[in-house]
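Running this now, will post back.
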Amino acid sequence: MTADLENTKGNMMADKNTGLSRRQFVTGVGGAGAGLVLGGMLVKGFILPDEVFAVPASEGYLLVDTRKCAGCNSCMLACAVTHHGSTSLSNARIQIIQDPFKPYPGDITISQCRQCPYPPCVDACPVGAMHVDTENGNVRTVDVDKCIGCERCVQACPFTPSRALWNTTEKHAQKCDLCADTPFWNETGGPGGKQACAEVCPMNAISFTSEIPVQTDAGYNVNLRLSDATPTLGKWPLGDDGEYTDAQIATAQAIAAAMAAARGGH
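Update: finished.
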């Protein structure tokens, strides 16, 4: 009885000193990871207790433009082949989802791992298989030799579909490592190298950045069309909502008028 009383007293003192337990903090951040300020100690108005384990930020992130994506699944195929030597799209760590009942531009979703500043999948792993790979740019990845198949990382990911995936063939968890470990590719991957999905995308709808994106959907699904600013209708719509800009339309109209005049001159 005395020991139980002392433990209860100790827990109460810990809660009093920190304001919240580590598990309470983990639960809160798991649902609102966007509030995490890297390099600081403030999270949505809460001061981090000393017990919380901070993880270093990833040195790389994938940005996508769903308005450029053609849904060809080339990125999925490249991911599966370079990582597993398999053409099974279910082994891809990036997933393209198409909804035939939605019109453009909301018909395609690209689900890439966000390399979360605070990764719930890493915290959820009971054996350290899901971890931060400090030797490869701090990417969040899986040590398949340690994975026990509990799938807690899959369940912990706050996004749908989960960015931590279960490999039904090899029986282990997996997720995007920015191609840090691609045994079936003769290129150097990882944050300092190439990413197979971005390399093969015929639409240039996937891009790599070393800057931490804003932790929202809009921070990862961006307008990559702005890299091609040629204002003609033969180019991609540059508007943020997938439309042609006024400058593009005006230029196209001028070109059409010039072509009509040239035909009339003959």
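The chain has a mean pLDDT of 81. More later if anyone needs it.
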